[in-house]
Amino acid sequence: MAENVRIVGLSGSARVGGNTDLVLNEALAAAKAEGAEVNMIRVSDYRLLPCLGCTTCFNSKKCVREDDGELLYQEIAKADGIIMASPSYFQGVTGQVKIAIDRVGFLSLARGNRDFAEKVGGVIGVTRRSGVSSVCSQMIIFLTALGIIIPSGGRVYAIGRDKGDVTRDQEGIDTARHLGRTIVRTLRLLRDSKKSNSGAPIYT
Questions:
Q1: 56 CB-near residues (< 8 Å, 6+ apart)
Q2: Side-chain half-sphere of 100: how many Cα atoms within 13 Å?
């Protein structure tokens, strides 16, 4: 069992119980089966205002916006693994996800990019027909900018439009489950590696 491994799933869909929530829950269920503690949070449940680009955070280390931005930041920061999921809206992530990316990303940068370094993550894109590649690319770029490790198989494509459609995309469901398992196993390997190297001499 992977003790004390915490995985958070970020659903970027405003449609409660929709395809994005469904496939993300499959990934989280697989992570839980591997022994992880899992939690899904819906970005639309947080009151997030757009980034002002004022750069105040680079001096104060805090955002001037009075909303739930810091709360979301801390929810992600306390997790060991992160799975981001978004439907395709006009070939890109939803507005809620983009605001979260901007707000969390700038705060992380202002704070020295330390809060997310060496966590493990993956992404899930959901689409009716097109845009899933660009959706996943946006989220992967964000995660890697934070210093998050993306293992092989860290990107999932799922097909669906009406609620429940994604459950008929067996390949999408299977790859989501694989993602959940892979993130936990990668975290376990990283922890084992750190333990085995903790007493090793450093040669220069």
A1: 62, 63, 64
A2: 29
Q: pTM of the predicted model, to two decimals?
A: 0.91
Using the Cα atoms of residue 107, residue 8, residue 122 and residue 95 in order, give the sign of their dihedral.
Answer: negative
Give 68's DSSP letter: S
Task: Give tens-digit pLDDT for 11-45.
Answer: 999 999 999 999 999 999 999 999 999 999 999 99
**Cα–Cα dist 193/125, whole Å:** 31
Cβ within 8 Å of residue 29, ≥6 positions away: 38, 177, 180
Spatial contact of 97 and 20, defined as CB atoms under 8 Å apart: no
Give bridge partners of residue 37 from the DSSP assignment.
Answer: 6
Q: Amino acid letter at 193?
A: S
The CATH number, out of the four listed (3.40.50.2000, 3.40.640.10, 3.40.50.360, 3.30.450.20), of the domain defined by the range 6-197: 3.40.50.360
